[in-house]
Specification:
- With about 220 residues, the chain is of the alpha/beta class.
- It has one domain: Rossmann fold.
- Helix content is about 35%, strand content about 25%.
- The protein has 7 helices and 10 strands.
- The strands form 2 sheets. A 6-stranded mixed beta sheet has the order 6-7-8-3-9-10, sandwiched between helices.
- Helix 3 packs parallel to helix 5.
C-alpha cells in the first residue's frame, strides 16, 4: 500500500538544514498494523503527517496504492487524502464551530452518500462510542477525553483504507484506551491498514510490525 524511497524532511535555519527525517525506506502492505515508536523529536509525528498527505514539504518518493504522491499536484493530494485516509490527531483538530454530530458528518460529506444515509451512520457511530448525549455540543464544551473519542470516531466513520493515529489514547483512561485499541484490532482484521504512534508498550503490541525512529532515522 505504501512505499517510501529516500524520503527526507528538513527545516532551513541560519546554520543550515536541520533534518527531521533522513533517508526513510519503508514498505507497508495492505492490512498491516504498524506501530511507530521512538523518543521525543525522533520524527514520528512528522512521518505520520507525510503519510496522511498533510505535509508536502519533503523530498524523495512516496507511493500510496501505486499513486505517485511525490509528483501529484496539491488538488490531487487533497482528493486522495479525503478518499483514502483517516487521521487521529494528537491535538484532536476538531472544528470548533461544528457540533460533535457535524464533525462526524464531515468525512462522510466527501463520499457519495445521501443525507439520510449519512445521518444513520453518524447516529450509529455516536451510539458505538457512547457519546449520543454529546451530539449537539461543540468541542469547547467537551473534556479532553471526550474530544479524543470524537476524534477517533471521526477518523474511522468513513471506513478509510488507511488509518493513521498519533497517540490515539493519550487523553483516555486505561479502559477507554483498551476499547479503542480493540476497535483498531477489529478494523485491521477487516482489512484497514493502520499506522499508529504510541509510547504505550501495551498498545504497541496490538500491531504486527514495529518501526523504531531515532533522530529522524529508522533504527529498526
Amino acid at each position: 500500500m505504501i512505499r517510501l524511497r529516500n524520503l527526507e524532511k528538513a527545516y532551513q535555519t541560519r546554520a543550515g538544514a536541520t533534518y527531521v527525517l533522513r533517508q526513510i525506506q519503508l514498505e507497508i502492505a495492505e492490512g498491516d498494523f504498524v506501530t511507530v515508536m521512538g523518543p521525543s523529536g525522533a520524527g514520528k509525528s512528522s512521518l505520520l503527517s507525510i503519510l496522511g498527505l498533510y505535509d508536502a514539504a519533503w523530498t524523495g518518493e512516496y507511493w500510496l496504492r501505486d499513486q505517485p504522491i511525490h509528483s501529484a499536484p496539491p488538488k490531487a493530494r487533497a482528493a486522495i487524502n479525503k478518499k483514502e485516509v483517516g487521521f487521529v490527531f494528537q491535538q484532536f483538530h476538531l472544528l470548533d464551530d461544528l457540533t460533535v454530530a457535524e464533525n462526524l458528518d464531515l468525512p462522510l460529506s466527501y463520499r457519495d452518500l445521501k443525507k439520510a444515509e449519512r445521518e444513520a451512520i453518524v447516529a450509529d457511530t455516536l451510539d458505538r462510542f457512547g457519546i449520543v448525549a454529546k451530539k449537539d455540543l461543540f468541542p469547547s464544551q467537551l473534556s479532553g477525553g471526550q474530544q479524543q473519542l470524537v476524534a477517533v470516531a471521526r477518523a474511522i466513520i468513513a471506513k478509510p483504507a488507511l488509518l493513521l493515529a498519533d497517540e490515539p489514547t493519550g487523553n483516555l483512561h486505561t479502559d477507554q484506551g483498551r476499547d479503542i485499541m480493540e476497535l483498531f484490532k477489529k478494523l485491521n482484521a477487516a482489512g484497514t491498514t493502520i499506522v499508529q504512534v504510541t509510547h504505550n508498550k501495551d498498545w504497541a503490541a496490538y500491531g504486527n510490525r514495529l518501526l523504531r525512529l531515532r533522530d529522524g532515522w529508522v533504527e529498526a
